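agent> fetching stored inputs for the phosphoenolpyruvate docking request
agent> found them:
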Amino acid sequence: MNKDRKLIIAGNWKMNKTVAEALDLVNGLKRELANVKEVDIVVCPPFTALSEVSKAILDSNIRLGAQNMSEHAVGAYTGEIAAVMLKEFSVRYVILGHSERRQYQKESNDLIARKALAAHAAALKPIICIGETLQEREAGRTEAVLEEQLTGSLAGLSPEQMEETILAYEPVWAIGTGRNATSEQAQAAHAFIRRWLSTKFGDTVARRVRIQYGGSVKPSNARELMSQPDVDGALVGGASLEVRSFSDIVKNSI
Ligand code: PEP
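agent> prediction call returned; pasting tokens
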């Protein structure tokens, strides 16, 4: 595939995998994907498996991500994890504002923006998730919702920080439902997001930012989705939990 932007495919393991299971999965991925150079491959295990997975992927082409982090650098925040703690395990990416956290933890755009700034301060690359619900799509509000999330979640980022940020367009109705957005729907949303980036951060930044698609990505739909001009990778949930399905998604995307 001939795109200026390198594809980035990340597996969001969510609250799955004990340490032993995480090691089985990542060791399988190492074997299957050892020769892949065309795609940035990222796994995002639960916090409890970061240490062991980090050791297992040393000297491999797989990079480590976390699923969340605190907006604070240090202090009395019971149960929270700071960016600097993630860095101890060579974490490079952190998913922020996943729709599950927006829904269950009531994370706001404002909070996500503060987390993004904290991530950049620690040289972690945020993967910021945005996306409309089915109700919003059916009401014709998709672009208005994306615009509101972009404006809020990216508030305060410099153009340089924006370039080092990954966006994930994840329509909520497609997450974990088996119902992916069509390639046309995904491309239309991604093109809208890139146009928005261009008006806020300029053409050069907009051309460089990678925008992942997320929502029921599987080996069978990866190629078509990834071949859209503004789709630069995938954030994969369910299908990232098995060696075969995640490695096939990566291979089918090249
Ligand atoms: C996700 O949760 O980010 C996701 C895209 O999940 P799934 O692939 O299972 O739809």
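agent> quick read of the result: The chain has one domain: 7-253.
agent> awaiting further instructions
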